[in-house]
Amino acid sequence: MAAREAAARRINAAHERLMGLITSWHTAAFLEIDVTMSQAKVLYLVASAGEMHMAALPALLGNSLSTVSSTVDRLVEHGLLDRRPDSADRRQVVLRPTEAGIAAVDRFHDLNARALRELLDRIDLPGLAHIEHSYALLVEAAASIAGSADRAAPRDIEPPHRKGAL
Predict the structure, then answer these.
(1) Quick one: residue 164, left, alpha or beta (phi over 0 = left, psi -120 to 50 = alpha)?
(2) What pLDDT was estimated at residue 38?
(3) Residues 157, 138: contact at Cβ < 8 Å?
(4) What confidence tier does 156 reach under pLDDT thresholds 50, 70, 90?
(5) Are strands 81-85 and 52-53 parallel, antiparallel or unpaired?
(6) Looking at the DSSP assignment, which residues form a beta bridge with residue 86?
(7) Which whole number is the average pLDDT over 99-106?
(8) Which residue has the higher pLDDT, 30 or 161?
(9) Segment 2-52, tens digit of pLDDT
(10) Which whole number is the average pLDDT over 78-102?
(11) Residue 122's pLDDT is what?
């Protein structure tokens, strides 16, 4: 168990270092997306759900309804969220991302995908095989946490066989 914990600590430290390096080179592109972190969280949650009752957000975010409401107000003003009464219960407010809101979330995803592509472009083919296998393992672990029925099968990807490979 100590070896497993030590390995997990080393991987976490490497991940933190990687994120710090990525942040250092794509901060300018990140700042071009004109939303605060609080707004990004709300936008991401609503976009991920497709639509959501505003009353669900405070518990998810750990904020008061008034704080969430003012964040939602800003997102509506910026044209990123649409807010409407629930047709089934007019006391409830339903939030949906607008096309512009979906585009903003897509820009966040694109930043991450672009950073990953830039990294992968600098790695040789045997190294890419290691990364492909490692990602398949991570996807399987994430799917088990999420309870997903659509699980990746990392066993379908052969681990790399290279002298000195871990």
Answers:
(1) left
(2) 92
(3) no
(4) very low
(5) unpaired
(6) none
(7) 93
(8) 30
(9) 999 999 999 999 999 998 888 888 777 777 777 888 999 999 999 999 999
(10) 93
(11) 97
Which 3-state string (H, E, C) describes the chain? CHHHHHHHHHHHHHHHHHHHHHHHHHHHHHHCCCCCHHHHHHHHHHHHHCCEEHHHHHHHHCCCHHHHHHHHHHHHHCCCEEEEECCCCCCCEEEEECHHHHHHHHHHHHHHHHHHHHHHCCCCHHHHHHHHHHHHHHHHHHHHHHCCCCCCCHHHCCCCCCCCCC
**What is the dotted CATH code of the domain comprising 35-122?**
1.10.10.10
**How many whole angstroms separate alpha carbon 131 and alpha carbon 125?**
10
CB distance 57 to 42 below 8 Å: yes
What single letter denotes the amino acid at residue 78?
A: H
The span from the CA of 148 to the CA of 146, in Å, is 5
Cβ atoms of 45 and 60 within 8 Å: the answer is: yes
